[in-house]
Specification:
Layout lengths: L2 H6 L6 H5 L4 H4 L14 H16 L24 E9 L10 H6 L3 E11 L21 E3 L6 E3 L12 E3 L4 E4 L13 E3 L4 E2 L15 E3 L6 E2 L15 E3 L4 E5 L12 E3 L4 E4 L13 E3 L4 E5 L13 E3 L4 E5 L14 E3 L4 E3 L14 E3 L21 E3 L6 E3 L12 E3 L4 E7 L9 E3 L7 E4 L8 E3 L7 H10 L11 E4 L16 H4 L7 E4 L8
Parallel strand pairs: 2-3, 3-5, 4-6, 5-7, 6-8, 7-9, 9-11, 10-12, 11-13, 12-14, 13-15, 14-16, 15-17, 16-18, 17-19, 18-20, 19-21, 21-22, 22-24, 23-25, 24-26, 25-27, 26-28, 28-29, 29-30
Antiparallel strand pairs: 1-2
């Protein structure tokens, strides 16, 4: 569209206004020429109509920002949140005699017009519903309406937006089923529908979108199983599949092995059952896998992660997995692994030594299993560990002194085991926040190491001998320097009722503990083994 055409479509002023400005306010409404005319290409008319319908359907007057929307004489490409591009479109106009759809599409004569390719109105208080007339935006490539309050069902006519590459409708109030017509969006790369109230199954057609790179349908109410294996051959570009926190069930499809570009797989917090497919070991680009909080059973396949050298996070906790932790669960090289959670299963045996080489590991969680072994000394070599939880197992033997080498530890959980010996807890580290060293058996003592940033420490429910009790008494003079302390539990038992010690810290010792909330010292407790 040339400059002259633009000038013809702006608001014009009648000669009478030039002659008599006093009449301007009286004649303002009647003497504005319409922005669209009979000579406007039909594609442009449909575009403006679709935009106006979107405005009214989503209660545009209530938007936080609606600058220039529906302003007479202002091109829709100037409206806030709208991006356009010059396009060749059919020149058929409203003045042409009753053109039908085929006439428009077959028209060889074209004209250049600015056409809408993106609408981005996130976090803008859009309400109401998404109108079916939005399908009139034939050149739309991105529709970003996330974090609004749009409700009702998605219109099936979304499938007519064949140029759409990104659909971002997350964090709204959409309900009903996800329309199968989304499978017609052959250019789709980023489909994001999480945190809505969708029900029913995820349409199998969605898994046929060959250009899809990210599929997010999480935090909804969708049900049913994932498609069979044959559907995944087309998704060779998919890098991010997130279906967590839904009501999906059935077995895990073996066909996911064909997602050769997949980097993130998160299907946690569903109701999947059955085994973890060993064929998934072919996902060599994977850096995160989250299968936690399902109903998976059976053994963890041996070597399943051995060749996945890019893995940073593995979450298999809160399932019904059994057997031993495979000796080669991670492989000889696991320099990228930062998180491994296997807690709340039925795993047995010991901790595989292959974890010893995971020197980037920050989170190791194997709690609430049936692990029956010593706590290996090489744990102390994982110097980047911030969170270690091996509680509620059957660990026995001495607590390794090498734990004190974990200089980055922020939370340590050893409770609910049969460990014995000296617990080096809390650690002499500026980052210690919580350390719970509460064995349920053996004869443990507690070693105090003063850390000025210590927030909370729990040494309760141990089996302390007399030396251990004396150690606690003698350490009390140090506690006044822990200015960040908010709570300390020093309740203990050595298998009999223990009298409250006379040497509790005086005001001169705890007066500097400005954050102290609780001081439980020497409560009488009867603890059974």
């Amino acid at each position: 569209m040339g400059l002259a055409d633009e000038e013809n479509e702006t608001v014009s002023v009648s000669p009478s206004k030039e002659k008599n400005k006093d009449e301007q306010s009286n004649n303002n409404d009647t003497e504005k020429q319409p922005y669209l005319s009979m000579s406007t290409p039909i594609y442009r008319v449909v575009q403006r109509y679709a935009m106006a319908t979107l405005y009214y359907a989503t209660e545009g007057e209530m938007w936080d920002a609606n600058d220039l929307w529906l302003t007479p004489g202002v091109h829709e490409c100037e409206w806030v949140g709208v991006i356009c591009r010059e396009m060749d479109i059919p020149s058929v106009t409203l003045a042409d005699k009753a053109p039908d759809q085929d006439d428009i599409l077959d028209d060889e004569n074209t004209v250049v017009e600015r056409m809408v390719i993106e609408i981005n109105l996130p976090e803008n208080n859009l309400q109401g519903y998404l109108p079916r007339e939005i399908s009139g935006l034939r050149f739309l490539q991105t529709l970003g309406l996330w974090s609004n309050q749009i409700a009702d069902e998605l219109p099936m006519q979304l499938g007519n937006l064949t140029n759409l590459q990104g659909l971002h409708l997350d964090d709204n109030n959409f309900e009903g089923t996800i329309p199968s017509t989304l499978g017609l969006l052959s250019e789709m790369q980023d489909l994001s529908l999480p945190t809505n109230n969708f029900r029913g199954e995820i349409p199998a057609e969605v898994f046929n979108l060959a250009k899809l790179q990210r599929l997010w349908i999480y935090n909804t109410q969708v049900t049913g199983s994932l498609p069979d294996d044959a559907s995944y051959d087309n998704l060779t570009s998919l890098t991010d599949l997130n279906l967590k926190n839904n009501k999906l069930d059935g077995s895990l499809p073996k066909g996911i092995q064909y997602l050769s570009s997949l980097q993130i797989l998160d299907i946690s917090s569903n109701q999947f059952t059955g085994l973890i497919p060993s064929s998934w070991k072919s996902l060599v680009n994977l850096n995160k896998i989250a299968l936690n909080n399902n109903k998976l059973r059976g053994k963890i396949p041996n070597n399943i992660f051995q060749d996945l050298t890019k893995l940073e996070s593995v979450s298999l906790d809160i399932n019904q997995l059994s057997g031993t932790i495979p000796s080669a669960i991670i492989g000889a090289t696991c320099n990228s692994l930062q998180k491994l959670t296997l807690g709340d299963n039925k795993l047995e045996g010991g901790l595989p030594e292959s974890l010893r080489s995971c020197n980037s590991l920050r989170i190791l969680e194997i709690n609430s299993n049936q692990i029956a072994s010593d706590l290996p000394t090489w744990i102390g070599e994982l110097i980047n560990l911030e969170y270690l939880d091996v509680s509620d197992n059957r660990l026995s033997g001495d607590v390794p002194s090498e734990l004190s080498e974990l200089s980055q530890i922020r939370e340590l959980r050893l409770d609910g085991n049969f460990l014995e010996g000296t617990v080096p807890c809390p650690f002499d580290s500026a980052s210690v926040i919580t350390s719970d060293c509460s064995p349920r058996g053996g004869t443990s003592t507690v070693e105090f190491i003063v850390s000025r940033s210590l927030v909370r420490t729990n040494h309760s429910t141990n089996y302390l001998n007399e030396d251990g009790l004396e150690m606690i008494h003698s350490a009390q003079h140090q506690i006044g320097s822990l200015t960040g302390l908010t709570g300390s539990n020093l309740a203990w038992s050595n298998g009999r009722q223990v009298e409250s010690p006379n040497r509790t810290p005086g005001q001169h010792q705890i007066g500097s503990l400005t954050g102290l909330l609780s001081w439980l010292n020497g409560k009488q407790r009867e603890v059974s083994s």
